[in-house]
Design goal:
Blueprint: H1 5-11, H2 16-36, H3 45-63, H4 68-101, H5 104-115, H6 121-136, H7 139-157, H8 161-178, H9 183-192, H10 196-224, H11 233-245, H12 254-264, H13 269-287, H14 289-296, H15 303-316, H16 326-332, H17 341-359, H18 362-370, H19 377-395, H20 398-415, H21 420-432, H22 442-451, H23 455-458, H24 463-478
Helix pairs in contact: 2-3, 2-18, 3-17, 4-13, 4-15, 4-17, 4-22, 5-7, 6-7, 6-8, 6-10, 7-8, 7-22, 8-10, 9-20, 9-21, 10-21, 10-24, 12-13, 13-15, 14-15, 17-22, 19-20, 19-21, 19-24, 20-21, 21-24
Length: about 500
Amino acid sequence: MNNDNDISDLGKKTNLGEALALVTILVICICTAVILFNDYPTGGPIQLALTFTAFTGILVGFKNKVPWKNIERSISDSLGVAANAIFILFCVGALVGTWILSGTVPTMIFYGLHFLSPEIFFPTACLLCAIVSLTIGSSWTTMATVGLALVGICNVLGLSIPVTVGAIVSGAYFGDKMSPLSDTTNLSPAVAGSELFSHIRHMAWVSVPSFLISLILYTVIGLTMTVPISSSIELNAFTDALQNQFEIGIHLLIPLLILLFMAFKRVPALPTIFSGALIGALFAVIFQNNVVLNLANTPDSHAFVSSVKGITQALFQGYTSDSGVEVIDKLLNRGGMGSMTTTVWLILSAMLMAGVFSSIGVFDILAKALVRFTKSTGSLISVTLSNCALMNVIAGDQYISIIVPGQIWRKEYERRQLAAVNLSRCLEDAGTLTSALIPWTTCGAYIYGVLGLTTFTYIPFCFFNIINPIISAIYGYTGFTIVKDEKALPETA
């Protein structure tokens, strides 16, 4: 977001009534899109709703004599924030395509079907994603690799996909939130003025109980559900069909191990994921050459030419399965950079609106209005959490929802002699976690693009992301773990 003085000063001309009107228009447009197109609201309706709201904001800016060059510059800055996420999305699409073609995803699904019991599948999926994400510090990488395989296993076992995605997201975000390797875990204390490991220890008081409650809920769901597959016959038929289409072997998990190692070494996400896609392409040529040639479907061409075409097709269009087994074809027909275009459209629409709102001062005026409701420490914590969530709604990006509220509330926490870890924890509890619950944020759009489920479907089962901010607010009102001095920080349970 551009914070130049000329933009900020001009933006102050927007009054509270106009800011609230714009937020109301946004809510009405989003609700209308969901009601009219409830089967596929993120396929275009929500994008139009965000664009219309942005256009309305531009009209408000013109009314208040905000120069178009300032609005345009703010839009450009906003789009710049999302540029990295957009190219990561394209690379993830390429990775999914080549990892299916190489047999890496089919291998993960194959072994997962043999080792994951339906009764404990949900808590196991959540715990597995938490461990991987904690190790590498990236919820996005976890969801695009392990998460994708877990969705495939869920499909075969006939389990609930919304519950599975909720468990994947919960686990991935817990690990990301608690990992010192995570970008948001480093960003939050930097913005609030606290220290990284003090910040992580302070978060543990909220995150660990929230995660344990989530695991219990997933366990209860798993133990009380009815498993559609009553015998192993259908499962064996599926794994046999999978083996007929791909070579399956433990060596095909090497691309996953390389990618996790690169992430652990903190290689930036963009080169890490695209390298993973290229490694998948190499493994496809070496171990799945017949599959590559079948995908190319050019029998009259030289084998080398057909291989290049097959790999290229997997990168931009994804993998196409025509095994004749409906479950396998439905599961494996995915991937490719082109599959991410609708998701990218969603992100661009959200960033357009965020840029317009920033240029006309909507963020500033809403933040100042919220200060009136912070009479006690509990209300300050709750309003901070709400501010982060609201910023995700109107700005569409988790980094903005951490940075802007952090800048707004830092001096207020200092004035009340509250330790900076209180603020940094709030920024993560709401700024990071609620980003996965809103369809048009970069995170919500990413989850839809990778796992194929809209936030409206998995929200009820995204237990960790919902429970964590609630417990954080309760702590604020009770005073539990709220510290006045960094040196008085309570020890981790």
